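Q: Got a minute? One more chain.
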Amino acid sequence: MRAQSPLRLTMPIRAWMQRFALLLLILAAFGLIVLGKADTVVVERLRVQLADTLAPFFDLVSRPAASFGRVSEEVREISALRAENERLREANARLLQWQEVARRLEAENQQLRGLMNVTPEPTVGYVSARIIADSGGAFVRSVLVNAGARNGAAKGQAAIMDHGLVGRVVEVGDRASRVLLLTDLNSRIPVLLETSRERAVLAGDNGPRPRLLYLPSRREAARPGERVVTSGHGGVFPPGIPVGETVSGEDGLVRVSLYADFDRLEYLRLVDTGLAHTLSEPIPGPQRVRPRGRS
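A: Always. Here it is, folded:
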C-alpha cells in the first residue's frame, strides 16, 4: 500500500477550515473583545509592545515616502517660483515703460506750467485716525475717530480709506472728531464724472448708494460704470479722490456705487490741505467807530 502524500493528508483539514473560516473569525474577534474587557492592562501592554516592535519598520518605510514628498514639494515650489519670476519680470518691464512715460509727462507738465504761470496746488497732508464709535447725535450715518484738533483734524477735511472717499469731518473736539459719511442724508460733496467731465453733487439719502444731483445732461451721465471723483470745488477737498462708479437706480435717478466698504471701516485718513481750517474762522466785518464824547 502506497504512502499518502502530505498534500493529500492536509486536504480534509483545509476543507474543514474553509467551511468554518467565518465562524472561527467570529470566535477570534469575540475572544479578543472579551480579553480586552477582562484585562485592559494586558491588552494595552501587548499593543504598546507591538507598536515598539514595529516602530523601526514603520520609520524605515516612512522615510522614503517623506523624502519623496519633500522632493515633490520642492519641485512644485521651484516651478511656482519660476512662473512667478516670469510674471515679475514682465511686470517690471511694464513698470519701467510706465516710468519713462511718467517722467516724460512730468517734464512736459512742468514746462507747460511754467509757460502758463500756473499756481501750484497746496501741499496735502494726512492725519490717520481709528474709528472708536459708530453713528450718534443728529447724524444717522457718522462715525467718531480718535483724532482731534491737537492732532491736526479740522472741520471740513475729507476722510478717505484705501479704496476711496468715505466722508468729511463735521465736528472737531480736542481729542476726537465726528466724520459724516457719504451715505448720510446731510452729506453733499461736489464731484466730477471723469469721462464726460460733467460736474454734479453727490447727495446721500441714508441708503447704500448716494444719488447725483444737478447733472447738466442726464442721458450722457447716466451711462453705468463711469468713474466718479471729487471735483475740488470749494478748495477743501483735493480733486481726483476716487468716490465710486455710476449706476442706474430703480427710481430713475443716477446713483453711485461707492468704492469704500462701509461695513469694514476701521482706520481713516483725514486729508489736510491747509484750507479746511479757514472754514471755522469767522469773516471779519466792518468795524463801527464809536463817536467820542465831548470832553
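A: Residues 142 and 180 are 5 Å apart (CA to CA).
Q: Perfect, thanks.
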